[in-house]
Amino acid sequence: MKKTWNILIGAFLSVMLMTSAHAGSFGMGVQAVVASVSAEGTETEAESGSETENSVMDATAGNEFMFGALYAEYGFGEGEHIVFGIEHIPYSADINNKTLSRTDASNSTMGYTAQDSGTLSANAEISDHTTYYVEVGAGTTGLYGKYGFTEVDINVKQSNPAGYGTYPDKTLDANTYAIGYRAAVGDKGVVKVEGFITDYDTYSATSTTSQTLKANLDVVGAKLVLGFKF
Fold this sequence. Notes:
This protein is mostly beta strands. Helices cover about 5% and strands about 60% of the residues. The chain has one helix at about 1-20; strands at about 25-45, 55-75, 80-90, 95, 100-105, 120-135, 145-160, 170-185, 190-200, 205, 210-230. The protein has an 8-stranded antiparallel β-barrel with strand order 1-2-3-6-7-8-9-11. A hairpin with a 5-residue loop joins β10 and β11 (about 210-230). The two termini are about 30 Å apart.
């Protein structure tokens, strides 16, 4: 994170020096976002004992939600053709729209005793979502393209009896791509409409009982941005 932040600061200062002869402006405001998250993952079990199982299980998950976000940015030049900014989502959201559960039990009538018995429930949530971005374009057309570097925490929400493994929480990086339209409202107001897609790095982890999990996560959505410049 420190290395990424230093790169962004360096790029910010370089552009500022190149455009020092032109007026720029700071801006800040709020965002209303509608998004859809989709995930697919593969878990490989590694059980040991009188019988050994190395099975692979695939699953998909998804959710749709609305949330708010905050942003701050600096636009260079009178036309503000280059904008650097940061946006933060102060909320969390579940990756799946329902918590998955499974119950394992021994069957004494069949002479079978389960190694693991009880009810397992699991989900995961996205939280502390922060994006550092650059917008290029706008000017008289109002159209712009956007690239963002995103960091997000993936928190595993798991309830299980003894014998089942648990997976760790992780921080993932992601790339955000967007196109949008920006317009002025009066002397200081700004409104933006934007469509975006965020492609996250793969969540890869090993549980406390040696199962392995790999999951891919993508988010697509649209946002309405309201702000002001000063």
